[in-house]
Design brief:
ten-stranded mixed beta sheet
Length: about 675
Amino acid sequence: MQASTVDAGETPEKPYLFQSKDIFDLEYVSEVQVSPDGEQVAYVRRSHDIMTDSTRSNIWLASTDGKSHRPLLSSKKNYYAPRWSPDGQRLAYLSNEEGKPQLYIRWMDTGQTALVTNVTSSPGNITWSPDGKHIAFTMSVDADEKPLKVTLPKKPKGATWSPKFEYITKARYQADGRGVLDPAFTHIFIVPADGGTARQLTSGNYNHGGSLSFAPDASKIYFSANRSDNWEYEPVEADIYTVDMQGQITQVTDFKGREASPVVSPDGRYVAYARRDDEKVMYKNSYLYVMKADGTEHKNLTAGIDNTVSDFYWKDNSHVYFQQSVRGLAQIDLVSLSGKVKQIATGLGGTTLGRPYVFANYHAVGDVVAYTKGRTDRPADLFLKKRKEQQLTFLNEDVLGHKTLGEVKELVYTSSIDGEEIQGWYILPPDYDSSKTYPLILEIHGGPNLAYGPVFTAELQRMAAEGYIVFYDNHRGSTGYGERFALLLQGKYSSKYDFADHMSGVDALIEKGLADPERLYITGGSAGGIASAYAIGLTDRFKAAVVAKPVINWLSKVLTADSGLYQIPYQFPGKPWENVEHYWQRSPLSLVGNVTTPTMLITGVEDKRTPMSETEQFYQALKLQKVDTVLVKVPESSHGIAARPSRMIAKVENILAWFKKYGGQKTEEKH
C-alpha cells in the first residue's frame, strides 16, 4: 500500500522544516583568537547578506567567563583575520572598508582605529613582532617578465585595435577561482605597527607564503618556501628559512619533502613545524616535528599518531597544541617535548555550511583553548576549554531553534569487496515514521583525501526535509583513519573499490528496512562527482543521478586543469601518453556505454579544477547514448559552485527537482 506523497511544493505548509531560504539566515564562528591574558576571544562571525548574495565577515568579542558577548567591528563591510598584539592592548585585522583589503589596527581601550597599509594587493598571514613594534605579512608582487621582444607598428591616434596578446610561459599558469595567473610571486613584508611604508623582505622569483613566526628578539622571521628553480614541478617540496630585517635569507632545513608552518617557542630555543616526506603517492601523513632554532636536532613528536596533524601553538616552552581529524571529527591534542600526548577537546567542526566536511578552527594561549564546534543540528559556535568545556555563543537559535531537523545516525559496516570497515552516517527525514520505507540519496564527498562527519549540513538537511534518507560515508581514501586507509585508493580513484564501499552502505540501510531499494538516487561533487559518474557506469540501480563538477576523462583532465602538476606524478604511474590504458580505465567516460541512469550534470563555467570541458564530454556522450540528460552551467562560478548562498540553494533545489522527476520524495508503507 502506497503512502502519501511528500512534495517540495508542500514545504511552505510545514514551517518547522528546514527550507532553502533558511540558508540565508545561517551564521557560524571562524578564526578564533584568544587574547594574551586569556580573558577574551576575538572571532570572525560569518553571516549571509541576502541583498548582495555574499558572506559577510564581522569581528565579535566574547569574554572567557561567558559574561560578555558583543560586536567589535560590525557593518556591511568585511572585517577578518584578527590578531592580538603581544601586550593585548591592540588588535590587528584586515578589512575592505576602504576598497581593497588593507591592514588596520584597533586600540582596545579607546576603540580608535588606524589604517596601517595602503597596498595594491591583499595582505595575508599577518603576524606581530614580539615587541609589538612591527607587523609582518605576505603579499603577491607582480613579476616583470616579458617572454618575447616584439615590435609592433604604432597605433594611430583614435584607432580601435584588438586587445594585446597574452603570453603564458609558466607550467602552473592557472588557478581555480583566479583564472589565468599574471606573473607574480608571494613575498614577505614588514610595516611599522604605527603605520608607514611596507617594506619587502624576501626576494627572487619564488613564493614565500604560509604562516610566519618571529624570533623572540624580532631579528628574523621563520617561514616556509620552495626556492628551487624547479619549484613548479615540486608541489610537495618546501624547506624552512629565516629572513632578517635586512632581507638576508638563510636556509634552516633541507629534507626531501615538505617542511612548513614553523612556530618559534616563547624562549626562542625551539621551532615546531610540520613535515611530510616526498614519496610520490596521493596521501602522506604530516607530522609535528620540533628542532632547535639553529636547525639541528629534529624530533618527531607525533610519530605514534597515524593521521595528519596541523595548527601548532606553544602552550609553554615544553608543550605544543595541535589539531587532527579522527573518524569524522576534529580534535585538539597537546604533546610534550618528550612525545607524551594528551587529548584536550573533541567534536570540533561545523565551519562548512553546505556539506558535512571535517573542518574546524582553534587558538590557544596557555591553558585557555578556544575552538569552533557545532552539532548535527547546528553550525559552528564558539567553545572554550579551561578546566571544563563551555559554549560561549548560540548563533543560530533564532533560525533553527523552532525547526525540526533530520536525526543523524552512525552506520559502521564492511565493504563487500574485501571486508574493509567503513564508517558512514545517514540522516532520517524530520517526519520519520518507522512503519515506512523512504527513498534514499547517496551523497559522496570530494577529495578524495577528505572526510565527512556528524556535523551540520544545510544541503543534506534540505534533502532530508523533502522526505529522503540521506546517506554519506567515509570510503577508502578518506582521511582520519590512518595513512594505510587513505592510500587504499592509490591508483584506484575512481574504481570498483570505492563503489563497493558506497553500495555496501546502501545495502545495509535497505536491510535495516529504512531505504526503498526501488528509489535510490546518487550525487556528489568533485571527487564525489567522479565517483557518481563511475557508479552509474557500473550499475543501473539508481533511478537518477546528479553529477557535480566531475572528472570524466583523466587523459584530458590532467592536461587542462590547475591541479595536473600534482596529480600526474602523485596519483598516476607516469604521464598520460605513457599510460593511456591506466588513465582510461579510471575515467568514467570508459563506462559511458553502460549508462542508462537519467543524469543531471552541473559545473561552474569558470571551473579550473574540473574544467567545464570534462562535463561537456560526458553530456555529449550521454546524449549519443540517448540517456535523459541535462547540463546545468553555473555562471561566474569556479569550482565552489555553492560558494554564494543563492548558488547553494539553486544547487540543492535542482538536485531535488531532478530526483523528484524520477519518482523521489514519497514514502512507501512497509509490507
